[in-house]
Specification:
By secondary structure, the chain is mainly alpha-helical. It contains 12 helices and no strands.
Length: 267
């Protein structure tokens, strides 16, 4: 195993699979709750986290985790306060991204390849990065597994959750924490501009093939993992960016799913 991990391509593929497996079940909840822009806003805040981490000589992982969590908590706290949710998310998402880019440009004495954080640099994943990615993936999968029934009930209806003795705001907080962890571990793989795509597209593609929520989560994980494998193979073969290649494969899977839906309705 040690020898295998010396190969950068194997490390990159394992990193892609780890992120995909963590993002898949969480992505299902984002699709069910119609929180796509919520994931985008959280991901965009990660660039500001990168700038703060470099400014204070902290771990990039810690900086992105803190800022992603802060953004997610801010959005949760502001929801239902009289403003249209999509408008508020749009303002916060793009403001966070712009503030992060400005903050990075103001850093003195730091050489930073900004494109690697915007679009990912999966081929540069090292052993330590791989341990962080899989550690985060296991934590997210374990958290969602342990809270699956409560999360699903709260997703269906706040009133139903309350009647069942479940606090819907607590379940929202659990999803928020899981989303922040996924953003923090995925930034190296697909970058902040593509994290939301990896969360949403495999889950959306799985919807046509699943009859139960559990099946949708498992199929989404399969589509995400397969997208990582095929995307890496295509990137290696055609010398294309790895992160975007992975997302393109997932998008192709969604295209197949949409076509199947159309054929079913026409039959």
């Amino acid at each position: 195993m040690s020898g295998l991990l010396d190969d950068f391509l194997i490390r990159a593929t394992l990193a892609g699979i780890g992120v995909a497996l963590a993002a898949a079940p969480l992505g299902c909840f984002i699709v069910w709750r119609r929180m796509a822009y919520f994931g985008d806003a959280t991901a965009h805040a990660a660039i500001l986290g990168v700038a703060l981490a470099l400014a204070f000589n902290l771990s990039i992982m810690l900086g992105t985790l803190v800022m992603a969590l802060a953004m997610a908590l801010s959005v949760s706290a502001l929801s239902g306060r009289g403003r249209a949710m999509d408008t508020m998310l749009g303002v916060l998402s793009h403001s966070a991204l712009a503030a992060g880019l400005v903050a990075v440009s103001l850093l003195q004495g730091v050489r930073l390849d900004l494109s690697s954080y915007l679009f990912g640099d999966i081929l540069a994943v090292g052993r330590a990065d791989l341990a962080v990615i899989w550690g985060g993936a296991v934590m997210v999968i374990g958290l969602i597994w342990a809270r699956w029934s409560a999360l699903l009930t709260a997703t269906l209806s706040d009133d139903l959750a309350t009647a069942a003795g479940i606090d819907p705001r607590r379940e929202q907080l659990i999803l928020t924490l899981a989303l922040a962890v996924v953003v923090a571990v995925a930034i190296k793989v697909v970058g902040v501009l593509l994290i939301a795509a990896l969360l949403i597209i495999p889950a959306a593609a799985a919807r046509s093939f699943a009859r139960t929520p559990e099946a949708m989560a498992l199929i989404a994980a399969g589509i995400g993992g397969a997208s990582a494998l095929v995307g890496m193979a295509l990137a290696w073969t055609f010398d294309t960016p790895a992160g975007p290649s992975i997302v393109c494969v997932a998008a192709a899977a969604f295209g197949v799913s949409a076509m199947i839906d159309l054929l079913r309705r026409a039959a």
